[in-house]
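Standup notes
- DV: blocked on the single-chain target, sequence here:
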Amino acid sequence: PGDISADLRTSEGELLLKCYTHNYKKTSLWRSPDLGHVWIEVKLLDTFSAYEFFKVGAFIYCSDNSGLYRTNNNGITWEQILSSPVNQICVEGGNLSAIFYDFNNQTNRLIQSVNGGLNWIALLSFTENVIDFFQHEQHLFVFLQGTTYCWYSSDYGTNFEKRNLLTPFSSTSEIIWNDGVIMWAYFGRLYFSQNLGITWKISNVTRFENPINAVIAQKDTLIVGTLDRGIYRKVHADSTWEWKNEGLLAASPNQMTNTGNDFYATFGNGLAKLESNGIDWNIETIDLPTPIGSYVGELDYLESEGRRLVIHGWNILIKKPQSNIWQKSVI
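- DV (later): unblocked, structure below
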């Protein structure tokens, strides 16, 4: 519909895509059960911003300033299941964990539902702002702004304990779980713990501490994308960081992802794949639209069940299994 594609996610085998109109005054949400072949609109209320959106079972969920809602009929009707603003949501094994602000007590609360949002229990309350929280299976971390500790639970939130941090944080990048190691980037440093937050270590990626804007991990291999300095690679915990930009023209990747044994980096001008030697990057041949100016917008990429998708500006391109042709996916 001429909208700007803003956020593309996979949720329980479906694609969910959030778009804005060109003036950013209206939000729309689309779903695709066949990875981009057919798109179905999920009708949003006029006031919806859809800050968080995901699918669990037969329901699609959206959060807004007025609370959390769900629908099982593509938005014809919405059921409100929380009446307070929801800042962050994590879905793990069908359970919903959410951070919301309790106006009555003027505190932030971590709450959880095991029945799709019909009933909630309070796990934690705190006056500090939550900068991020993360869950992997039974492990749950909550990071607070300006504190030198985080909260950790090893039993889905039944019990919590404090785990000390090296320094207080005002923000984090996307938190990554890799074979029991939890990590995230903060400006030009990578923070990680190999023992569930009992102790933390710092890895300086570049000498000039260029901000890190993308991180991917697979077993012992870490690859990060930095602003203006490009891509760095580390092959095991005790090795040094190596500058690995062979074959790349751009210096600042928008995003990085790994699918199976393949690593990809996305740039404003293309999609690059890391070759099997772990050194060379090759820009893939994709018939991207001709930019109106020098920059169309960030390029996003994902791969699922053999299908590959690229989102670039207001365009979505898809490559089907065993095909060498990228095709435009039209909403």
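- Follow-up: Confidence is low (pLDDT under 50) at residues 289-296.
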